[in-house]
């Protein structure tokens, strides 16, 4: 079974379609939240995920898009983009977003946007936070997004001892075999990468093994940016896509 794991698509349809073209036929699509926000195509992205039968969880931007007052905690640009998103999305999109759970467990994998202890909001950026959250996992492995950074926190090969937990930054195209290890894995962001690489990022998960493989795919960034300008979305959100920051 091959599964595509997508996070932080952020209404960037061109980035999503480039990733889907690269991964080809898969047995499932799991998404880790922030389907909308920042980008110009919220309805089209949700339509695509719905057509493909994607399952997954909600992110903080998805929560804001359906009217939650978490928008108060957003910075100026995120808030302006979110106000546009709220005005723009169809009732069907709002309904699909509202139905997303905060957490989901499939097979040996637990899906959240942020972390186990705070599924919508916590950013896991340290090994200490990763170890604390790994101890809370209801399954062998965890998937998370929210930071927009491709990374794995994994125990040593053949060991489930959290004392050996280390952060692994995967080069694009690299694979990590998880046999016997425990791991929290982040696919990076499809629609707004922040690790200095502008290409769309995602993960292909081979459930037998299991083995995770990070992929990076070029997409038509300028077309996304043109659509954002046309929608009068914030300029900083447009320019950061060029640099992957
Ligand atoms: Zn995000």
Task: Give the tags.
245 residues; alpha/beta; Purple Acid Phosphatase, chain A, domain 2; six-stranded mixed β-sheet; 12 strands; globular; binds zinc ion
What does this structure look like?
The chain is an alpha/beta fold and 245 residues long. The protein has 8 helices and 12 strands. It has a single domain, classed as Purple Acid Phosphatase, chain A, domain 2 (4-Layer Sandwich), CATH 3.60.21. The strands form 2 sheets. The chain has a 6-stranded mixed sheet. A hairpin with a 2-residue loop joins strand 4 and strand 5. The protein is globular. It binds zinc ion.
What's the gist of this structure?
The chain contains 8 helices and 12 strands. With 245 residues, it is an alpha/beta fold.
